[in-house]
Each structure stands twice: as C-alpha cells, then as structure tokens.
Amino acid sequence: MSDDVFRWVIAIGVGLVCAASIWHAITLAGLIKVVNEAQKAGKEGLTKIAPALQDIEQALAAWRTIMSDNRSRVAEITTETLAIAKATRQQVENIGELLDDTGARVRARIAQIDRTVDRTVEQVEHASEAARSAVQKPVKEVTAVMAGVKAAVATYAQGGRRSVERATQDEEMFI
Description:
Layout: H1 2-44, H2 50-158, H3 164-174
C-alpha cells in the first residue's frame, strides 16, 4: 500500500512538472514566434522602428531573465516534490507498521479471550458435574433406604416369610 501511495505522489509531482514544462514550452514558443515576427518586421522597417527595436531587446532580456528564474523554480519545485514524496512514503510506512503491530496485538488479545472462555466453559462443566453428583448420590441413597423399608414393611405385612416362589422371583429381579 505504501508503494502505491508513493507512486501516486510521484506521478502527481511528475505531472505537475510536466504541466509546468509544457506551459513553459508554450510560452517559449509564443515568445519565439513573437520575436521572429518582430525580427521580420524589424528587417523591413529598421530605420522606422529603431525605438521599437530597443523595446524588443529589453523584452528579450526580460524574457531571458524570466526563463532563467523559472528554471531554478522548476528545479526547486522538483526538489520539494521529491522531498514531499519521500516524507509521505516514510509516513505511510510508519502507518503500515503501526497497523501491523495493532493487528498482531488484536490477534493476541482475541486468542487470550478465547482461551479464557474455554477455561471458563470447562470449569462450569466441571462444577455442574460436581453438583449433579452431589445431588444424585443422596437421592440414590434415600431411594435405596426407601426400597429397604418398603421390603421390610411388605415382609412384615405378609406375616413372616414369603413363599419360595415369591422369594426366588424377587432375587432374580436383583440379579
């Protein structure tokens, strides 16, 4: 991602430099055209337009000054554009590193939360199993005691011993 941003910034900078160069070329072409036309007119009426010729020479001098000034400005703009592009690329790389670090921290935190949830679920399952065992054991004991009391009452109610057939059948049920 940082290379793409860097490329866009460089492309925009190069585009600006190209636009400035095209503008200078158009201006230069226009000035050259004007100068050429002025030279033709000057040759035809050199004696009539001597004062105008001096003005053209001054304009050419000014034009040369402007062109020399613009060359340094274009170089300055190019240098500044490259510096901006370099700083932008560095900032984008820093942001990329920050996002990578943040992503790693988030993944570590999610893994920690997942482990904590797993441990909690295991502890809840263990606690429910312990509670179930704690409740079932006394219930089984009470049920067994009640079965014994019921058998004793039934035996007492029959008035003694049971018949052999009945006793054999009861024993087979316990086996």
